[in-house]
Amino acid sequence: MKIFSLVIVLLIVGTAATALLRGTGAPQGPGQYDEFALCLKDKGAVFYGAFWCPNCNNQKKKFGSSAKLLPYVECSLPSGKGQVQQCLDKKIESYPTWEFTDGSRLIGDTPLTQLAEKTACSLPTI
Protein backbone atom coordinates (compact mmCIF):
# COMPACT_ATOMS: atom_id res chain seq x y z
CA MET A 1 0.00 0.00 0.00
CA LYS A 2 2.89 2.39 0.76
CA ILE A 3 4.40 1.76 -2.68
CA PHE A 4 1.06 2.45 -4.37
CA SER A 5 0.70 5.75 -2.46
CA LEU A 6 4.26 6.72 -3.34
CA VAL A 7 3.65 6.02 -7.04
CA ILE A 8 0.48 8.16 -6.99
CA VAL A 9 2.30 11.05 -5.28
CA LEU A 10 5.17 10.85 -7.79
CA LEU A 11 2.72 10.88 -10.70
CA ILE A 12 0.97 13.96 -9.33
CA VAL A 13 4.27 15.77 -8.68
CA GLY A 14 5.57 14.82 -12.14
CA THR A 15 2.41 16.04 -13.84
CA ALA A 16 2.51 19.33 -11.94
CA ALA A 17 6.20 19.84 -12.75
CA THR A 18 5.59 19.15 -16.43
CA ALA A 19 2.74 21.66 -16.53
CA LEU A 20 4.90 24.33 -14.86
CA LEU A 21 7.86 23.74 -17.17
CA ARG A 22 5.68 24.07 -20.26
CA GLY A 23 4.59 27.54 -19.21
CA THR A 24 1.18 29.09 -19.32
CA GLY A 25 0.45 28.16 -22.90
CA ALA A 26 -0.04 31.82 -23.74
CA PRO A 27 0.83 32.66 -27.33
CA GLN A 28 4.30 34.05 -27.87
CA GLY A 29 4.79 37.52 -29.25
CA PRO A 30 6.18 38.14 -32.70
CA GLY A 31 9.52 36.61 -33.54
CA GLN A 32 12.61 38.75 -34.02
CA TYR A 33 12.74 38.01 -37.76
CA ASP A 34 9.00 37.90 -38.57
CA GLU A 35 9.09 40.96 -40.85
CA PHE A 36 12.27 39.75 -42.54
CA ALA A 37 10.82 36.28 -43.21
CA LEU A 38 7.61 37.80 -44.59
CA CYS A 39 9.62 40.16 -46.79
CA LEU A 40 11.59 37.22 -48.23
CA LYS A 41 8.28 35.60 -49.11
CA ASP A 42 6.88 38.84 -50.58
CA LYS A 43 10.02 39.22 -52.73
CA GLY A 44 9.48 35.73 -54.16
CA ALA A 45 12.39 33.97 -52.47
CA VAL A 46 11.85 30.25 -51.88
CA PHE A 47 13.76 28.08 -49.40
CA TYR A 48 13.99 24.43 -50.52
CA GLY A 49 15.11 21.94 -47.90
CA ALA A 50 14.69 18.54 -46.31
CA PHE A 51 13.72 17.58 -42.78
CA TRP A 52 16.81 15.39 -42.41
CA CYS A 53 19.25 18.07 -43.64
CA PRO A 54 21.47 19.51 -40.85
CA ASN A 55 22.26 22.68 -42.82
CA CYS A 56 18.55 23.26 -43.45
CA ASN A 57 17.88 22.94 -39.73
CA ASN A 58 20.73 25.37 -39.01
CA GLN A 59 19.24 27.80 -41.54
CA LYS A 60 15.86 27.60 -39.79
CA LYS A 61 17.49 28.10 -36.37
CA LYS A 62 18.89 31.43 -37.54
CA PHE A 63 15.30 32.63 -37.87
CA GLY A 64 14.25 31.35 -34.44
CA SER A 65 10.48 31.37 -33.94
CA SER A 66 10.14 33.29 -37.23
CA ALA A 67 11.12 30.14 -39.19
CA LYS A 68 7.44 29.19 -39.38
CA LEU A 69 6.92 32.21 -41.69
CA LEU A 70 9.63 31.28 -44.18
CA PRO A 71 8.68 30.47 -47.77
CA TYR A 72 9.80 26.88 -47.18
CA VAL A 73 9.29 23.89 -49.47
CA GLU A 74 9.92 20.44 -47.99
CA CYS A 75 11.61 18.50 -50.78
CA SER A 76 12.05 15.15 -49.07
CA LEU A 77 9.54 12.37 -49.20
CA PRO A 78 8.46 11.18 -45.72
CA SER A 79 10.74 8.15 -46.11
CA GLY A 80 13.75 10.46 -46.55
CA LYS A 81 14.43 8.82 -49.92
CA GLY A 82 13.57 10.81 -53.01
CA GLN A 83 12.00 14.19 -53.68
CA VAL A 84 8.55 15.62 -54.12
CA GLN A 85 7.64 16.53 -57.69
CA GLN A 86 7.96 20.30 -57.16
CA CYS A 87 11.63 19.91 -56.23
CA LEU A 88 12.28 17.48 -59.08
CA ASP A 89 10.73 19.98 -61.51
CA LYS A 90 12.95 22.77 -60.11
CA LYS A 91 16.01 20.49 -60.33
CA ILE A 92 16.91 21.04 -56.67
CA GLU A 93 20.09 19.04 -56.13
CA SER A 94 21.46 20.40 -52.83
CA TYR A 95 19.99 21.56 -49.54
CA PRO A 96 19.32 24.17 -48.50
CA THR A 97 18.71 25.99 -51.77
CA TRP A 98 17.31 29.52 -51.89
CA GLU A 99 15.80 30.46 -55.25
CA PHE A 100 14.98 34.04 -56.25
CA THR A 101 12.65 35.60 -58.81
CA ASP A 102 15.53 36.30 -61.20
CA GLY A 103 16.23 32.54 -61.29
CA SER A 104 19.46 32.79 -59.30
CA ARG A 105 20.16 30.50 -56.38
CA LEU A 106 22.15 30.45 -53.17
CA ILE A 107 23.09 26.97 -51.99
CA GLY A 108 24.05 26.04 -48.45
CA ASP A 109 23.49 27.55 -45.03
CA THR A 110 23.22 31.17 -46.14
CA PRO A 111 23.95 34.13 -43.84
CA LEU A 112 20.91 36.32 -43.20
CA THR A 113 22.90 39.34 -44.37
CA GLN A 114 23.37 37.69 -47.78
CA LEU A 115 19.62 36.97 -48.02
CA ALA A 116 18.94 40.60 -47.11
CA GLU A 117 21.32 41.86 -49.80
CA LYS A 118 19.87 39.54 -52.44
CA THR A 119 16.24 40.54 -51.75
CA ALA A 120 16.60 44.13 -50.47
CA CYS A 121 14.76 43.02 -47.31
CA SER A 122 15.80 44.80 -44.12
CA LEU A 123 17.24 42.83 -41.25
CA PRO A 124 16.11 43.99 -37.81
CA THR A 125 18.69 45.82 -35.74
CA ILE A 126 19.63 43.84 -32.68
Automatic annotation (TrEMBL):
It comes from the Bacteria. This is Thioredoxin domain-containing protein.
